[in-house]
Amino acid sequence: MRTLPEKYRLLTWISLLLVAGFLTTSIASYIVSRDTIRQRVVEQALPLTSDNIYSEIQKDILRPVFISSLMASDTFLRDWMINGEKDTDQIARYLKQVKEKYNTISSFLVSEGTRRYYYADGLLKTVAEKEPRDAWYYRVRDMKTDYETNVDIDMANRDAMTIFINHRVFDYEGNFIGATGVGLTLDTMTDILDSYQTRFHRTIFFVDRDGIIKMTGKSMKDVHGSITRLPGISAISKQILNKSITPTQLEYTRNDTTILLSSRFIPELDWYLLVEQDITDDVVPLQRILYINIAISALVTLLILSIVLFIVNRSQQLMETIAGTDTLTGLLNRQAFEMIFQQAILDSERRGSPLCAVLFDIDYFKLVNDNHGHLAGDRILQEIATITKGAVRDNDIVARWGGEEFLVLLKDCPLQQAIAIAEKMRQTIANHDFALRGGDILLTASLGIAEYAREETPADFFTRADKALYQAKAKGRNRIAVSPTATARNESTEDEAPAAD
């Protein structure tokens, strides 16, 4: 059975530790947050939300009550009625201004003296006691309270279902002289409730004194009738309809889900405000956060693993590079070159392409070290490496063979081209001024060239290049010598390219 490489075993352990850590942290955070939310909703959130919604209702829904109250006490309106309702345009302008200023769907006035029904466009009709659609006025006339909230059709607005605030109007002696007020469409009120539900994430609706559902948001558009007959909530309906303006905290079960409920009676509307909360509504965001945390943890884990893998690979490559690189010149060392050379021979034999080697060293290099020191000798070797890399092609391989010896492997290069490259290297070295502290010096190099013969062993190939190098030295240095080709070798001859005069 094959085992994973060491670096992959390391990554596996790091992965397991990261995944375990992230999952433990995320799940523990989710459980603690969920339990905290349960406790907070029961003790704080729902009562506080009910208070906030009640404040919003006072601002949005009770606003028409205040507008109607202002109209009923307006001296212009009362004086206009007391003085005989002489100019209909005046009251029409007044009602139109109220409608536009407060953005209501309608504004109206009914006079007790003339029974005339005025609205923003003038005189609408005369109310009659026997007319069913006018029953609201006579109910308002005879009621004990100053105003009422009533849902009815609006004759001045194409019979749209409207919430009217009907306010009684009195003269300065306290005598009833008519009814005035404004109206809001049910759609407007529904939108207000929907906005509350969106902002507070609660179910909000109103019921009257008898428990009849009077107003809901769109989420409860199919819920009608009395709460005394609805599943679950019917069990606590008597506790809800307790006429208490102080919020009552209750709960009931619906479809195996516990629903928390806050109830409050609003005298201004003569309705009960009910605010419900399903605890799962608050848990869902936590679940979403849990999934997001897990996804982020997975991405972080992958990122960390990628970074670790990158660092491990870079470190491995660096170690391999250090192991295969001559630290002084930056060229390949002998061990690394031998591995590359084996592959070059296989490629040459497979493709039938020529392969040449140039082995050279610096003439009388020992004198440089003796006269100028080893540090100077090291700088010269570095310069020789730079010169050599600049003289060969990009795909050729340069290695430091040992001491002051260098080896160049010329792939896909015939012998004559190798001779030309070697001669270029020799001339460049001979013409280069090597700057030392004691002054510039001139150095030369001797080079041996061999072309790889098919099925020749690597040792034989290097031996021929080495013999050619010694042949160049024996002939006076600063020159190149060429090992004989396969045919010339049988005649025991060697080619030599002497140094130029």
What oligomeric state is this?
single chain
> What is the name of the CATH class of the largest domain?
Alpha Beta
Quickly give the structural class. Answer: alpha+beta
Taking pLDDT < 50 over at least 5 consecutive residues as the criterion, the unreliable ranges are 486-501
Total DSSP helices: 14
**How helix-rich are the residues, as a percent range?**
40-55%
Amount of beta strand = 15-25%
Please state the overall shape, judged from the principal axes of the Cα atoms.
rod-shaped
Total domains: 4
At the fourth level of CATH, the homologous superfamily of the largest domain is: Reverse transcriptase/Diguanylate cyclase domain
- Known CATH architecture of the largest domain: 2-Layer Sandwich
**Spatial gap, N to C terminus:** 68 Å
Please report the total strand number as a whole number.
Answer: 19
Please give the radius of gyration in angstroms: 51 Å
Q: Name the strands of the widest sheet in spatial order.
A: 3-2-1-6-5-4
Note the main sheet. 6 strands, antiparallel
Return the average pLDDT rounded to an integer.
Answer: 83
CATH overall fold name of the largest domain: Alpha-Beta Plaits
